[in-house]
Amino acid sequence: MVTLNHLSVKDVDDVSPMLPEAADTSVSTPVFHRQRDLTKTVSRQFFLSRGENLAFSFVLLIGCYSAVLIPAYFPVDQVETLSSGVQHPKDLVLLNRSAALLSGKCQPRWCLNHRKSLSCSAGLVDIPVFVQQDKPVSWDLSPPLGLQGSEEHLALALASLPEHGLPPSLWRAGSCRRCMVVGNGGVLHGSHLGSHIDQYDIIIRLNNAPVNGFERDAGSRTTIRLIYPEGAPHFAEDYRKTTMVVLVVFKNLDLDWLTSVITKKPLSFWSKMWFWREVVDDIPLRPENFRILHPEIIRKTGQLLQKYVLNKGNNVPTLGASAVVMALQLCDQVSLAGFGYDMQHPEARLHYYETLRMDAMKAQVVHDVSAEKLFLRDLVAAGAVSDLTGALRSQRD
Q1: Quick one: which of 10, 98, 218, 272 has the most CB atoms within 10 Å?
Q2: Who wins on pLDDT, 344 or 142?
Q3: C-alpha count within 13 angstroms, C-beta hemisphere, residue 282
Q4: What pLDDT does residue 25 have?
């Protein structure tokens, strides 16, 4: 009779002999126990442990969420790409229209003659553009509509500026000037208007809207960059081919910041704490390349917008709308690109240089972008300005 205690199961993968000590002291194991242990070993080779399974499930869950959410957050570019990787303009009709506009001769007083049909035309003329030291003003409003209470800060800033008016290179008597105001709207993305924009006499940009890397759609030249301190570009590349940086004053400290940038004397740590965003200490331009926007531009723009707002209030105009009013003072013909927020399509691209969606505009309460769009549409409909990117349609939402 043969008992189980005398049976041995040899592991086919174990080619080493059992040591004598182990043979003497080992406890006999039933065959079915050995088989169950072997099954567990094989199972571990094919199945994950509880911790590994949990980690794998978490990664799989994140992947599923990403597949759903990322396409919703990042809008699909409206640019057709061939297999060769070559990108084409999203609207050839607009591109051809822009080319036709540039091919024609500059028409003196074009804006002035065409805005006469507007009911607000009287408020669009003879607005001072820059604050000048030789033209003192008795301010009756505080920033940004005036400079009341900022007189001492203003005096220091003006003293650091060698020049206060439009540079002679831009103010040629008897010449016809064309202005281009480049908005930051996502409608500019994929337009391929960069080479057209660069052909204008005066090119106005807003805050930190970049040019480096976006030359194809936004151009490379900048004549006037309207900024407030928190909106100034942080990269030196975005100041290349720039003629002037113009400060829009919203608080006394903005003037101190301008003085600091021009004189290269940094602001104190305490002063910097009062800005709502980190500001630059240096802008790679000479002192004669800085100006201060006259607050009358902001005030007049705000007054013009009151006709279009549904809820009357003290909404401050955007720099974009203010830049258009400024351009009407400087140039005979004015064109716009990158204007017209499309609030009816929340998934659309908000800015040409990032993938933030239009839906994000609902969070801001300072500006009435709907009123500004109606104002700009009226200018386009009257023929006072041209809209190169086509978002300022004549019909109302």
Answers
A1: 218
A2: 142
A3: 6
A4: 41
Q: Is the peptide bond before 287 cis (omega within 30 degrees of 0)?
A: no
In a domain, 275, yes or no: yes
CB 332 within 8 A of CB 178: yes
Query: Where is average pLDDT lowest: 205-214, 319-328, 344-353?
Result: 344-353
Q: Give SS3 for 269.
A: helix
Q: How many domains does the chain have?
A: 1
DSSP character for 316?
A: P
- pLDDT of the residue at 56: 62
Phi, psi of 88 (to 5 degrees): -120, 150
Is residue 48 situated within a structural domain? no
The pLDDT, as a whole number, for residue 5 is 44
Residue for token pair 């490379």: 220
Nearest 5 degrees, angle CA 247-CA 250-CA 251?
110
What is the enclosing helix (H) or strand (E) of 335?
strand 333-337
287 and 158 Cβ atoms separated by less than 8 Å: no
What 3-state DSSP class applies to 365?
Answer: coil
Q: Above 70 in pLDDT, residue 299? A: yes
CB within 8 Å of 6: residues ≥ 6 apart: none
Give the CA radius of gyration of the chain: 33
Which H helix or E strand runs over 50?
helix 50-73
Q: With 90 as the cut, is the pLDDT of residue 48 above it? A: no
**In terms of Cα–Cα distance, which of 284, 214, 204 is closest to 248?**
204
User: Is residue 14 scored above 60 in pLDDT?
Assistant: no
Beta carbons within 10 angstroms of residue 140's beta carbon = 9
Let me know: does 252 contact 208? Beta carbons within 8 Å.
Answer: no
Angle at 244 between CA 385 and CA 370, to 5 degrees: 40
Question: Mean pLDDT throughout 349-359?
Answer: 79
Q: Within a domain: residue 70? A: no
Mean pLDDT estimate for the chain? 80
Q: Which range of residues forms the domain containing residue 317?
A: 92-387
Tell me what pLDDT residue 91 has.
Answer: 79
- Kindly report the CATH number assigned to the domain that includes residue 169: 3.90.1480.20
Distance (Å, rounded) from C-alpha 242 to C-alpha 178? 17
